[in-house]
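Lab notebook, bench 4. The sequencing result for the construct came back, and we need a structural model before the next group meeting so we can plan mutations. Quick request posted to the team channel:

Model the 3D structure of this chain.
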Amino acid sequence: MKSSPRTRHNPTDVRQFRGYPNSLKLFRMDASKYWYVRMYVRGGPSSGVKKSTRCEKLSDAEEFAINWYEERLLEKREFKERGAYTFAVFAKKFQEQQKRLIRRGELDPNMLYEDDLRLNRGLLPYLGNKHIKQIDYNLVDEFIDELHNDRNLAQSTLKKYVILVRKVLKEAEKGGVINYIPTLPVVKRVDNPRPWFKPDEYQRLLDACRDLRDNPPPDTDFDWGELYDFIVFMVHSFLRPSEWKFLQNRHIRFIQDDGIEQLVISVPNPKTKKASGGIDSTTTEVAADIYRKRILKRNDDPNAYLFFDYLKNRERTVPDMISRKFWYLCEHVGLDRDAYGQKHTT
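Done. Here's the predicted structure in token form:
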């Protein structure tokens, strides 16, 4: 077999180190005045890993080569540790802890869903491969800045990302991998209250809803009378927009207070939970009146939902549909936005 022609880059004067693996070598090439160090790595390319020592003297090159070799060993060790102690590993532990809390009834499943979204869409792509000890103020601040620039997220949302980082770090602290949770950026929240209806605007909204109830558009199959009941009930029950979708008749009871009939609502999915897991809310007499005269007459089954019982996907379909119809109503009456241009929503 004919040998390959020799070039100025072929190794010459190859040296090995006593007490070190045979794969570690020093060599020179005609193309350079410096010594080079090479270490073959199992599973790596056949040419191995090499680096110029930038040293002309053999003794200096040997010192450089040994230090370089030890640094590669540290990198290998850190790589193995990184695989066992990445941010992604402790994010997984955090998710498992959340699932246990859900099974015990101590956590709303929606919390796991929202955290999963933030982890998969933001945190894991950016921080997932980082060793948990690398997660510090500067790294998280750079992440938050990137989120703000790329996705223009609200301060309240950015704050939730920081809180989620802290929760994942807490898992590492509990496991003894880190001694403390580092200081993290503080995202200052800017108050941005939802637009509201003035009394005369609210009356116009109700008038328009009654008009649609009595004269429904020919191109829509929707009970505007039920939306009217929904608006009045929500205003006089003081419920949050997210708390009505799972309300059933069995969650409602009547009470008398100084001869005035009111409702007590046992909210099944309150945003803020007590230790017992539920919250009772008391309504005005207007909510009690419309509930007795209109909502119960529509369907008095204890398991019937108060609004739009025929829609079964209560988590997504129901609130989305009501949002769209409410927006249609607001546009119909010219109240789709407030004086500052903010969109009216349920």
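The chain has a mean pLDDT of 83.
Will bring this to the meeting.
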